[in-house]
Amino acid sequence: MRLVLLSLILLLTACSQFTKLDGTFYSDKQDCVRFNDDEGLLESKTHIPMRGLKLKQTRTKLKFSHATLSLGRILFRKHVYKYHFKLLSKTDDEFKVSPISRLAKEYFDNRIILTFKTKYKFADPTNYFTKIYFYRSRCLGLCNELHLELDYSGNLKVTDNGNGVTDTAKTTITLEKFPLKI
After folding, report:
1. Average of pLDDT values for 46-62?
2. What's the pLDDT at 65?
3. Bigger pLDDT: 113 or 13?
4. Residue 106 and residue 179: Cα distance in Å, rounded?
5. d(CA 23, CA 15)
6. Contacts of residue 135, Cβ cutoff 8 Å, sequence gap at least 6
7. Contacts of 132 (CB under 8 A, 6+ apart)
8. So what's the pLDDT on residue 182?
9. Which residues pair with 42 in a beta bridge?
10. What is the overall mean pLDDT for the chain?
11. How is residue 166 annotated by DSSP?
């Protein structure tokens, strides 16, 4: 009886519907994978983006393919380019794959494991700034003229020029190492 119940549970879990990946995902090296129903996109920083790829998803594999026609011996010859990946793990906001096919390995520079995350979990290392300026005018004499300057190390410089009518004094405040959370 236990054996029948165990086999029934295994059969039900094996036949259950798996959730397909959907949306746009990025790797730490800024590679991109996009899933749209049965169409996909692969983009690497070192290669040309592959758009309009046919996509087939299973529990353990992701298969991208692209077919072209060229003039062959008898009319046309079909060339199929396959980018196959083994799906190692998957959560709601990230997944890990390993390239299986030769083209997939070459496209992602022979990396063994690729981790892709949603854009909300992806920290872009190229986003940096040297200074941020904020300027507010006098609003026809009703507001104070205000200048804010924030540099990359967290120093904040605030300059208040007054409203130009009643206050002509210039006040500058510099806060060093202002705690930034960006």
Report:
1. 89
2. 92
3. 113
4. 44
5. 25
6. 146, 147, 148
7. 148, 149, 150, 151
8. 47
9. 33, 50
10. 79
11. S
Q: What angle do CA 17, 98, 16 make, to 5 degrees?
A: 10
Percent of residues, the chain, with pLDDT higher than 70:
74
Instruction: Write the CB contacts of 129 (distance below 8 Å, at least 6 apart in sequence).
Output: 152
Do 79 and 68 meet the contact criterion of CB atoms below 8 Å apart?
yes
Q: In a 3-state reduction of DSSP, which class is residue 96?
A: strand
18 vs 34, 83, 116, 148, CA distance in Å?
18, 21, 19, 52
- Res 101 pLDDT > 80: yes
Lowest-pLDDT choice from 58-72, 83-97, 140-154, 166-180: 166-180
Indicate whether 150 pLDDT > 80. yes
Residue from 53, 58, 18, 49 nearest 35 by CA: 53
CA distance 79 to 68: 5
The total number of residues written for the chain in this structure: 182
Alpha helices per DSSP H over the chain: 2-15, 102-107
Q: Where are any strands of DSSP class E within 5-155?
A: 23-26, 32-36, 39-43, 50-57, 61-71, 76-90, 94-99, 114-118, 131-136, 145-151
